[in-house]
Amino acid sequence: MLLNYAIIIKASVQTVQGQYSNAKQKQCSVTDNSRSRYTSPFSEMETFLKIGSMYQIVPVAPGEQQMAGGPGGSPLKKKLSHEGRPLVMASMLGCVLVLAAVVAWCYYSVSLRKAQLFKTALLDLNKDGFIIHNQAGAVVFTMTFRSGTLDLDSCSKEGDILSCTQSDSGKLNFFIQTVRPKDTVICYRVRWEELQNKHLVEHVMAYNDSHWYGGAETATQYWPIRFQGEEEPRPFITSDVYSNRNAFGGILERYWLSSNATAIKINDSVPFHLGWSEKNRTLRFQARYQDSPFRPLEGQQTFPELSYRVCVGSDVTSIHKYMVRRYFTKPIKVPSADLFKKPVWSTWAIHKTAVTQEKLLRYAADITRHGFNCSHLELDDRYTADYGEFDFDPQKFPNASGMFDKLREGGFQVTLWTHPFINYDSINFGAAVEKGLFVREPGGELPALVRWWNGIGGILDFTNPDAREWYSSNLNMLKSRYGVTSFKFDAGETSYLPRQFSTLGPLSNPSTFTRRYTEMAIPFMEHAELRVGYQSQNISCFFRIIDRDSVWGYELGLKSIIPTVLTIGILGYQFVLPDMIGGNAYPNHTAGGLNGLPDRELYIRWLELSAFMPAMQFSIPPWAYDNEVVKIAQKFTGLHETLVAPKVLELAHVVLDTGDPIIRPLWWIANDDEAAYKIDSQFLIGDDLMVAPVLEPGKQERDIYLPAGRWKSYKGEHYDKGPMYLTDYPVDLDEIAFFTRVL
To answer: What three-state secondary structure class fits 203?
Structure first.
């Protein structure tokens, strides 16, 4: 009987050994890519089975069996038979436990190998998204797949590429490729492309308790970004945020930067829509063609694709420098030095559309009489009889040639306002229709009429070489006939395109229209001015932030200027014109003041801030107030020319090579300082000149944050124990606080 038990147990051990061998072969077949980095968990099981095979029950001899029991069956035999049943059960239970152990080890092994499969560098992928760690192991980036989940059984890894072919909704092309362009930078190329009929792809990025910067100019601008409310994804395209305060602005790029030293750039090919959730602290990145102005390229399927690059660096400044050098174009030259040194004087805020030859000449004479310099005099809307014409209204400007001669004698260069519209009542409208110069209706025959702030008309199709040539020839005619120096290019946002339209050159991304419009400024860029930009960093002219209201706050007011200039600087636009000092004095959008003028204190504080920007622009003149304001203006235009402009010009030439901001956030030199990431009312010019303007009404003091280092104030005070706060630091009405970093 015991011999039979021995045979059963030995057979069980052999069975376990055989199952172990099969499981081990299966485990080895999962993947061989990372074998050199993997120690098999079956090594312990092998030891267990070897030990188990050493202990076998030794059978008794036949004689011994008879002596023990006798022919008739002794009480001993009955006792053994009775006691043997538990032994059989124990043996069978042991076999089951061994088998369970083998299965558990197999499952653990496969799970471990899969876990290794879904890791690449510092990124961990799961079916619902991925996370990225920094070198210290902290999570710095989280992306969730909102529109679908991956089928992990369809995933494989080859070299630096982790790819999957199935999601819960069907076939797809998904991959994450790891790229190490520098020792301190690691990047991940991510692509999710639907291969079956699905309407959208959406990924959701979490803030991860970090501060984010970039994206777009907005009407209410905060630094860092502060998304408010719950917003469904909408087209991320250039828009006029003065007329639509909830839209994305005229200067935008698909780029965001985090204080966690991470950056993300959405690929140009993506039909990109952006939404957000204030509650969940997330940004929603969505790709779709349905109910969208984006269109697939001709011959391309309408399946959406969401692709982007995420890069992680050692600190926020270095990762931004890498991204700008790698993905942004750079200006090819520096605009005229006069623009950096001397103010621009515009007719817009002071005269609006009522400007005339007489008013322009008087304005120029007053500039000279009050002792101010001028880089150029900007003749704004409206000097033509109708919108879309390219000569002077003889009623308002009876002797335009003589006017230009007189202005040149006074040392003035003159630029003219221009735009892409031709109103239906202009003499040029019919000619443009006949030549096919307009953006057209979808059928391609009739011009698509649009409404803009000065009426209804057609908009020139700048994808059409004939339209570009016609527009340029008219600008060159003004330049040669009157000696015009350059032009202020207004509008250009895609929000002025009709809802349904066709262009000669296909526009899969509507913001490409903005890019084509900015190219019209290239021949005139020494003194040119644009207010829109998309992939336009190489257009070497000044980019003006959208019209400001004459108010103190963050919505197109004084407080919005620093966040806006910092934001478009992060987007690669460094030659910034911060709009007109005191704002535009629009009715119902002007604080305080008499006779329609902006509040006097607001005007002075605005003037002081502008003096530390790359360029200054007046329209409402200082003498519209009183002699004290004139003296303050003379003081700060002088300070701008002697202190600020030389430094800005030096940095401007560096921009051509690096793209680094001229106007910089405090974290640029203090990227391990949490306080520096949140300060939106101070800024740096370069690395060693810090400016802290007063931006609150009725204040002649402010709190100032000094990052680590040694600083010397404009009053001669020395501070050697930063970082520190200077509480209620006194700043008189005719002062602005600034500090020089002492090395």
So the answer is: strand
Q: Tell me the β-bridge partners of 126.
A: 129
Specify the pLDDT at position 361. 98
321-to-216, 316, 327, 540, 571 alpha-carbon distances in Å: 19, 9, 10, 20, 11
pLDDT, average across residues 417-439: 97
Q: What is the pTM of this model?
A: 0.86
Backbone angles phi, psi at 583, to 5 degrees: 80, -170
How many other C-beta atoms lie within 10 A of the C-beta of residue 661?
26
For residue 56, what are the contacts with CB-CB under 8 A and spacing of at least 6? Answer: 6, 9, 10
Which CA distances in Å does 682 have to 152, 425, 583, 722?
A: 49, 48, 20, 16
DSSP state letter for 290: T
Ordered by where they begin, the domains of the chain are: 123-327 (2.60.40)
Per the prediction, the chain carries an average pLDDT of 89
Question: In this structure, what token pair is assigned to residue 8?
Answer: 């059963």
Under 8 Å between Cβ of 447 and 441: yes
E-strand ranges in 183-251 read: 185-194, 200-206, 212-216, 230-235
Give the residue from 294, 219, 203 showing the smallest Cα distance to 252: 219
Q: How would you class 321 by CB atoms within 10 Å of its CB: exposed for 0-12, middle for 13-18, buried for 19 or more?
A: middle
Six-digit token string for 214: 């970039």
pLDDT digits (tens, 9 = 90+) for 516-561: 999 999 999 999 999 999 999 999 999 999 999 999 999 999 999 9
Radius of gyration of the chain (CA): 36
Give the pair of three-digit tokens for residue 580.
């007109």
Task: Give the model confidence (pLDDT) of 31-43 as tens digits.
Answer: 344 333 334 444 4
Best CA proximity match to 427, nearest among 399, 459, 389, 396: 389
Could you tell me whether strands 455-459 and 450-452 are parallel, antiparallel, or unpaired per DSSP bridges?
A: antiparallel
Asked whether the beta carbons of 737 and 704 are under 8 A apart, the reply is: yes
* Residue located via tokens 């910034």: 576
Distance of CA 203 to the CA centre of its chain: 15
Length of the chain: 743
Other CB atoms within 10 A of residue 511 CB? 29
CA dist 255 and 237 (Å) reads 13
Residue 644 DSSP SS3:
helix
SS (H, E, C) 587-605: CCCECCCCCCCCCHHHHHH
Q: How does pLDDT run across 248-274, given as a tens digit for each residue? A: 999 999 999 999 999 999 999 999 999
450 contacts 496 by C-beta, under 8 angstroms? yes
**How does residue 68 score in pLDDT terms, banded at 50, 70 and 90?**
very low
Strands 529-530 and 486-489: what pairing? Answer: parallel
Q: Quote the tokens at residue 335.
A: 């605009």
The region of weakest confidence among 2-16, 142-156, 233-247 is: 2-16
H/E/C letters for each residue in 298-312?
A: CCCCCCCEEEEEEEE
Q: Which residue type does 521 have?
A: A
The CA-atom distances, in angstroms, between 609 and each of 172, 215, 730 are 52, 24, 16
Rounded Cα distance, 49 and 169, in Å: 45
Residues 6+ apart with CB under 8 A from 707: 666, 669, 670, 673, 676, 690, 722, 723
User: Nearest-CA neighbor of 656 among 540, 502, 514?
Assistant: 540
